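Need tokens for this chain, all 246 residues.
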Amino acid sequence: MKNNMFCSQKKIYIGVAIRLRPRKADFAGQVSLRRYNEKYGHIITNTHIAESHDLFIIGVSPQAKNDRFTMGREASFARMQLMTPSVEYIESYRKALEEFEREGTEGFWTSLEPPDNPEAFVQYILDLREGKGLREGWVPASIYWLVDGGKFIGHVSIRHRLNKRLREFGGHIGYAIRPSKQQKGYGSSILEMAIPKARELGIGRVLVTCDPDNIASRKIIEKNGGSLMEQGTADGKPILRFWIQL
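Here are the structure tokens for all 246 residues:
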């Protein structure tokens, strides 16, 4: 999505796209507009519903053009997609795996076979939501990939139910952003976009966990409505458990 330019005498206004649901603004859109109003006052100068009816275009005044939130998150949000895994992004996914390996980061992906056969790999992930091919201790889960600018950014796993292990660690939603794209707002976006997916599964509230020393993850969870339930342990290590009411 290219930025739209609105001209008024000597002022140039930058158009930023915010994705909406067909019937109403999603959580991200509402928050974005509210933050614009709170930070800049009445700077929303032009509104337009795109022909596809899923984008909301707003005009932003010049004083906002250098704001990281304005030009970063909103512009990026218009391009981001939380989608079912696709062979189209396998090469980008492979590169992300290499980044995780170099960082020594383990997660859901380390328990899967390498994506040497892209079609079979993607189908296996899709089957997990139907409860097919589950390994011991696993539960049905919907896996989504966050894609931005045609590149794999991260993945999120939405578990359909909890077992004893997941109640201790992991919860309903687990996500990971590739190292090269961390600290750019993607973590918050992927959780934000996953919450409606969990609601569609009929989950009334979701459990999300993180390590106590992972301040960034804690802020992301709390930003998305997480309330600290308790600080417990998992495998002898401290863990924070949050509930997000849907």
